[in-house]
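Predict the 3D structure for this chain.
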Amino acid sequence: MLFLKILAEYYYMSKALSYSNSIDIYIMKLSIVAGLNESKSTQDEVLKHFAELCEFLSSLYYDGIELSLLEPEKIDIEKINNIKDSYNFEISAIGTGSTYIRFGYSLGHHNELIREKGIQRINKYIDLAQKVQSKVIIGLIRGRFNFESSSKKEKNNIKSSLKECCRLAENNGVVLLFEPINRFEIDSYNTISDSINLIEEIGSKNLKLLIDSFHTYLEEDPGYIWDYLEEITQYVAHLHLADCTRRAPGTGHFDFKTFLNTFKKSAYDGFASIETIMKPSFEEVAKESSEYLRSIL
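Done. Predicted structure below.
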């Protein structure tokens, strides 16, 4: 067992050296989504968990971590920064979906008070993002259409709320990442083209596009999407990676090589972040994803 461990470490070290010594090889920054359970844990527990994540992921040559948080105001920002900096890590993005899932706050809700609460929560995420030099994701927090409203009204509510979120983001120098999500999970802006139209309508330099391979697989025309991606890479500031089964990349039949090469050609300098069902375990998904993606980039 010791021999196998040493052999594995040598293998990864050799790969890392080959990456760093080959200036012609394009290296996309890699991160993975993880939570810190900040709502139910003590500060010491949160910090210990974050440090353990950074140590584990750095051993697999990840460049950062994407945090999925419910209450960002409970994060000890100074200590989180110290930990991530000690591993030369970045917080690639901050997920906000749990705000809708757990609290029910959304940017498109027919109730103005609930929309305001959603914007207030986004402001807390923006405050954290500004201090840890990260981005904030606008995904599930858009909400779902309510029978008391209409799709037209709720889309207008999303636009209005998003404009206010963009104003807050601009004031803090933070980028918001708008994510097209498939129709089975959300009712608005399911496709990349619809999302780009919204981004152009909002007209904020702090509003960028997040493209998720899983949602792309479900919503986009497979005969058209590859050419279309080449046309719109300038809008994209973050990627989510999951195979067509929503498991680790390489476990299904999504064409990650073509997908990622599209961004490679455009000199994309953002993160590709693993966002999957974490089975059989977070550790196995992180390891398998890193090995597979590094082999095709």
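Confidence is low (pLDDT under 50) at residues 1-24.
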